[in-house]
Structures are given as structure tokens and as C-alpha cells.
Amino acid sequence: MKILVVSDTHGRDEELETVVEREKPFDMLIHCGDVEGREFFIEALAECPCCLIAGNNDFFSDLPHEDEITFCGHRALVTHGHYYGVSLDISGVIEEAASRDCDMVFFGHTHKPVTAEKGGVFAMNPGSLSYPRQPGRKPSYGVLTVRGDGSYKAEIRYLEDF
Questions:
Q1: Higher model confidence: residue 6 or residue 43?
Q2: How many CA atoms within 13 Å lie on the side-chain side of 152?
Q3: Sign of torsion, CA 91 94 99 103?
Q4: What percent of the chain stands above pLDDT 90?
Q5: Containing domain of residue 117, as a range?
């Protein structure tokens, strides 16, 4: 199973369209918030199951603030992350995932890509396709490939590397 993970697109669709076309086919799209009114566009663009979360800039959205999803034997918390202080430290969001019996957590908010594992919980922030904030400011996204036995490979990919 191939899962495309994005966040913080802030209504700017060009980069997302490029990534979707580049990464097709994939089986699921996870958007970790700050879609800014583009949820219907994103679902249509992906052409597969989507998990879309409201971020701190999705003021008038009906999207949930969090979701818990299951795939290939994994249980994941999907959140924007701002309620868990991810700008300072990702420990809080990892602890929240563990408290919900999730072995993965996907989040955004910081616009900085990161993958980490702590206490048996894998965490991924794909960064931002629209407004990256990490050194070098390269637009980024994540790809999670899960094998039939539940093992997985997680990658942060950059728009300009292709």
C-alpha cells in the first residue's frame, strides 16, 4: 500500500497537483491540515480514499480536527498538531498517539519535515508544499509504503528533486 502524506498546502494547488501526478498510483492520501477550503478539490484530485484534517487556518471548515485510521495492521492518529505543541517538541503528539493505541501519527503545522520513532510510535510531518520553513525551504511531502506483512518504508520527498 502506498500512502501520500501532505500538509499545509494553504489553498495553493499547483504543487499538490504536481506531486499527485508524480506519485500516482497511490492507495490513500492523508492531508494533515490547512487545506483552506480545498477539500473537495483534493478528494477529486486524489481519486482514492482520503483522510483530510482541519488545521489552525481552516476556520470555516467542516473537516474533523483529528481522525484515527487503520491500514495494513497499523492504527494511526492524523492531526494538524497545533493542539500538542509540535512547534516546540513532538513528544506530546507521540504520547497522544500512544495513549490511543496508535502506532503511527501524522501531523503538520510546523511546515518542517520530520520522521521519528519513539516508544514504538512512528511520527511523520511531511512539511509543506506551499510554504516550507526548514533550512533551504524546499517544498516537501511524505510517502509511506506499507508491505503486506505490515513493515513499512517512510520517505520525505522534495518537489525539486524530480
A1: 6
A2: 23
A3: negative
A4: 92
A5: 2-161
Whether the Cβ atoms of residue 120 and residue 98 lie closer than 8 Å to each other = yes
Stated pTM of the model: 0.96
CATH number of the domain residue 61 falls in: 3.60.21.10
Question: What would the grid cell of residue 71 be?
Answer: 491500514
**Cα(133)–Cα(131) distance, integer angstroms:** 6
Q: How far apart are CA 57 and CA 52, in angstroms?
A: 14
What is the average pLDDT across 94-101? Answer: 98
In 47-142, alpha helices (H):
91-99
pLDDT tens sequence across 52-77: 999 999 999 999 999 999 999 999 99
Nearest by Cα to 140 from 126, 120, 154: 126
Q: How many residues does the chain have?
A: 162
How many domains is the chain built from? 1
For the chain, helix, strand, coil in percent to 5 are: 20, 30, 50
Q: Which three cell numbers stand for residue 84?
A: 500538542
The residues that bridge with 66 in the sheet, in sequence order, are 79
